[in-house]
TrEMBL record:
Gene3D superfamilies in the cross-refs: 2.40.10.170, CarD-like, C-terminal domain
Organism lineage string: Bacteria, Bacillati, Bacillota, Bacilli, Lactobacillales
Short name of any one Pfam family annotated for the protein: CarD_TRCF_RID
Domain annotation CarD-like/TRCF RNAP-interacting: ranges: 1-112
Protein name: CarD-like/TRCF RNAP-interacting domain-containing protein
Organism: Trichococcus pasteurii
SMART domains assigned to the protein according to its UniProt record, in alphabetical order: CarD_TRCF
Coiled coil: none
């Protein structure tokens, strides 16, 4: 069970702070069931979820883990699929459901490479690719921003600079 002020990754919401753990005083809700009151860090609003929910939750990674993952980015393989939008969505959904930073990076790198290939043919990647890349970036950069203690809008540049430096060392 998480504690008040813990930072967690909650489903597709991204990083949230546990604001409270309480019994809900709502007629339609069982009075003995505990709920997390979550405050998403990157949007307004509050999320109420049972402590025993089936929705994915995990603690945010550590700053050391984030740095280690950034070091591994050059070795994370792309996974290019050229198929129907439905199959592509299903494939990306499976990667996203893992809530694992390395899989988010794989999605980002894959769409980035597809963008480069499409550009050589004066084309663009599909809306499905763009949508999942944006979603993966939101999730990854949100978590990295929290643990690396930097504004979310600076994370992409920070990661790109670190990866460039790693590749120059080779």
């Amino acid at each position: 069970m998480y504690k008040v002020n813990d930072l967690i990754v909650y489903g597709n919401e991204g990083v949230c702070r546990v604001e409270a753990i309480e019994v809900m005083n709502v007629t339609a809700v069982a009075n003995d069931r505990l709920y997390y009151v979550l405050k998403p860090l990157y949007r307004n609003g509050t999320v109420f979820t049972p402590v025993d929910t089936k929705v994915f939750m995990r603690p945010v990674i550590s700053a050391d883990d984030a740095q280690e993952i950034i070091e591994q980015i050059p070795t994370i393989e792309t996974d290019i699929l050229y198929s129907s939008a439905n199959l592509l969505s299903e494939h990306y959904d499976k990667a996203m459901e893992r809530h694992d930073c390395k899989y988010l990076i794989q999605v980002i790198k894959t769409v980035y490479l597809k963008n480069q290939i499409a550009a050589t043919k004066n084309k663009k990647v599909s809306e499905t690719d763009r949508r999942y890349m944006k979603k993966a970036e939101e999730m990854l950069y949100g978590e990295f921003a929290v643990v690396l203690e930097m504004p979310k809008n600076e994370v992409k540049t920070y990661v790109e600079e670190k990866v460039s430096a790693i590749e120059l060392r080779k």
